[in-house]
Amino acid sequence: MKIALNPLLYLVCGLTDFAAFVVIFAVSRGLAEAHSETWWLGIVGAAFSFSSGVASIGSGLMSRRIDSRYLFLGGAIAIEASIIGCAWLPVQSCWFFPCYWLLGVGLGCLYPPLIGWLNQGEDAHTNRRGVSRTLILYCVAWNVGMMCGQLTAGSLFRIGFNWVYGVAGAIGFVNIVVAQMAVRQVVPLGVTSSAKSWSRSESIDLAVAFKQLGWIANLGGMFGGSMVLHLLPDLAVRIGIAPEQHGILLACWRSAIIATYFFLHRWDGWHYRFRTSVVSQCLAVVGLSVIAFANSYGMLLAGLILLGQLIGYNYFSGLFYSTAGTKDEGRAMAAGVHEATLATGMATGTVMGGILGSYVDFRAPYILAAVVLVAIILLQVVVWRKRVSPLLEGVGYEALSMRRSKSNSMLDNAK
Fold first, then answer.
1. Which of 239, 285, 293, 339 is most buried by its number of CB atoms within 10 A?
2. How many Å apart are CA 257 and CA 313, to the nearest integer?
């Protein structure tokens, strides 16, 4: 049985990221305009990512042991508490940044059970199109929320922090109300199950291998992505990008990510093809290089778009393989690991980039990110040759594609 609650869950996605990224923009841009050291921006961003990653793993683990509805609702409450704390405390207070990092804890607690609910009861091997449709709606929902948050924060930043945090707090409160409506209708994870029993097969083993390969790709992709979220404000201030333009740049970055989701949803050719991932990562290397030497709005926009397509590819493909390679009761845990690898890449990137930006040059973090991404690509090539390529030869890619096409045709005819 598949739970029929998706509209509420998608709404929670949008509201959560709307509220969260108003605060993230305000804190990071505020520190940059106060001429904080780049290493401090890195530490603040890394601690945020670390708290999110630890909470994601914890939430994924606990979703199988306690009622996941409490984790979900607790995450929404933690986000609102973080917003209130950041609004009332001065940035000089020793409690300001712990309150900010509580935002990461809230996100980490909320998302693993939410992702687990979305695809609960679905078999990604017989209903690929249905799983893909669920994933794209989810990805679009939280990205639109993030985009709205960044645009709103950029527009209100000059007016005053009271307006910024007031909007974030109002959205966070509405999110709690919607989350409460949601938890009244869901069931704990693992109660529902797929129509077909879970059994190991070559295609499932292949999905597991690509899921693990995707986790490695997340480290490199978000190492570069972290620069945009936490260190780009420093670059933007230095080259004279106004807050309004900064917000628009981030919205365009998100638009590129969303466009990538739609492309992957409509085009099946990327499934179980490592070369597609490599091409996407190579384009991101070019994008990071462009950002590193950017001295204008246009150059930043071009670099962000090239980097954004990788963020979109890694996130969408990673969730697809996590669903295809995990049974129902383990999907929250798989989602937690997926989110944690993203957070690990972000935390590492912001710390190393922040230190390099302070002691070498403010453009150096983006060059470092490009180098790290090349190293991650080479690591994936090694893993692919040893772990994934033998599975592809065993299952036969053409046979796998024919089985998927046949099952999708049968589903379309049934509809």
1. 339
2. 8
The residue among 193 and 278 whose pLDDT is bigger is: 278
Question: What gap in Å lies between CA 314 and CA 337, rounded to an integer?
Answer: 14
Rounded to an integer, what distance in angstroms lies between the CA atom of residue 281 and that of residue 221? 8
Domain residue spans in the chain?
6-186+200-410
Cβ atoms within 10 Å of 158's Cβ, excluding its own:
10
Q: Which CATH class is domain 6-186+200-410?
A: mainly alpha
Q: Nearest 5°: phi and psi at 198?
A: -80, 125
Amino acid at 123: D
Question: Which uninterrupted H or E stretch holds 229?
Answer: none
Query: In the block, which residue shows the tokens 């499934």?
Result: 271
Q: Say if residues 394 and 319 touch (Cβ distance below 8 Å).
A: no
Rounded CA-CA distance 365/97 in Å is: 23
Tokens, residue 304: 């962000």
pTM of the complete model: 0.78
> Can you list the positions of beta strands (E) in 146-238?
none
**Euclidean distance between CA atoms 101 and 87, whole angstroms:** 14
Place of tokens 């695809």: 119
Tens-place pLDDT, residues 21-63: 999 988 888 888 888 888 888 888 888 988 988 898 888 888 7
How far is 192 from 1, CA to CA, in rounded Å?
6
